[in-house]
């Protein structure tokens, strides 16, 4: 059985970002790693998104939005269950994520409630944040659940290489 990974919207955004001569080497590197993960590692996993990702992907530049929609069309979509909404509310009520990160809490909650193995993201402020994740894990465990491994595509490339 393949491990299951949730693609958060930032991953899809980097994947669909138009190639450009970017002076920001970090952004350029994220874009390249995202494409490599998609091309080389996606087949190793069962890949999922949620209704939230679909909604967010529709926003912005119409051409890029259409590309994001095309990329998402072949990916299984998870519903946002009431349990995920409850967990997101608990995360926000704990103060571990700020209110402005409500959508991020919902991404995390969907992946948690559906018991996925990984949440793949470039959102290092609220999701792939090693200062916040251990405390979120404790909160979620108290509620009888387990967080997925939250990581960047680069980290999941390394994990896949180790296998």
Question: Which helices and strands occur, and which strands form pairs?
Answer:
Blueprint: E1 4-7, H1 9-16, H2 25-40, E2 46-50, H3 51-57, H4 62-72, E3 76-78, H5 82-94, H6 102-113, E4 118-120, H7 133-142, E5 149-151, H8 153-162
Parallel strand pairs: 1-2, 1-4, 2-3, 4-5
Helix pairs in contact: 1-4, 2-8, 5-6
Task: Describe what you observe in this structure.
It is a single chain. The protein is of the alpha/beta class and 163 residues long. It has a single domain (4-162), classed as 5'-nuclease (Rossmann fold, 3-Layer(aba) Sandwich). It contains eight helices and five strands; from the N terminus they run βααβααβααβαβα. It has helices at 9-16, 25-40, 51-57, 62-72, 82-94, 102-113, 133-142, 153-162; strands spanning 4-7, 46-50, 76-78, 118-120, 149-151. It is globular, with a radius of gyration of 15 Å. The relative contact order is 0.18.
CATH topology-level name: Rossmann fold
How much strand?
5-15%
The main sheet comes to: 5 strands, parallel
* First-last Cα distance: 15 Å
Shape: globular
Computed over alpha carbons, the radius of gyration is 15 Å
The CATH superfamily bears the name: 5'-nuclease
CATH class: Alpha Beta
H-E order: EHHEHHEHHEHEH
CATH architecture: 3-Layer(aba) Sandwich
Which regions have little confidence, pLDDT < 50, spanning 5+ residues? 159-163
Strand order of the largest sheet: 3-2-1-4-5
Helix content percent band = 40-55%
Sheet/helix structural class = alpha/beta
Mean pLDDT: 90
Number of domains: 1
The tally of beta strands, per DSSP, is 5
Q: How many distinct helices?
A: 8
């Amino acid at each position: 059985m393949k491990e299951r990974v949730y693609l958060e919207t930032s991953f899809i955004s980097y994947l669909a970002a138009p190639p450009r001569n970017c002076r920001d080497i970090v952004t350029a590197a994220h874009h390249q790693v995202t494409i490599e993960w998609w091309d080389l590692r996606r087949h190793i996993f069962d890949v999922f998104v949620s209704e939230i990702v679909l909604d967010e992907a529709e926003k912005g530049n119409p051409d890029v939005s259409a590309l994001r929609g095309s990329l998402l069309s072949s990916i299984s979509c998870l519903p946002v269950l009431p349990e995920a909404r409850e967990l997101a509310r608990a995360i926000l009520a704990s103060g571990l994520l700020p209110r402005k990160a409500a959508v991020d809490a919902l991404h995390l909650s969907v992946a948690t409630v559906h018991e996925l193995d990984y949440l793949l993201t470039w959102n290092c402020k609220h999701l792939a944040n090693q200062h916040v994740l251990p405390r979120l894990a404790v909160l979620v465990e108290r509620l009888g659940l387990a967080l997925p491994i939250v990581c960047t595509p680069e980290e999941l490339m390394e994990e896949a290489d180790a296998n």
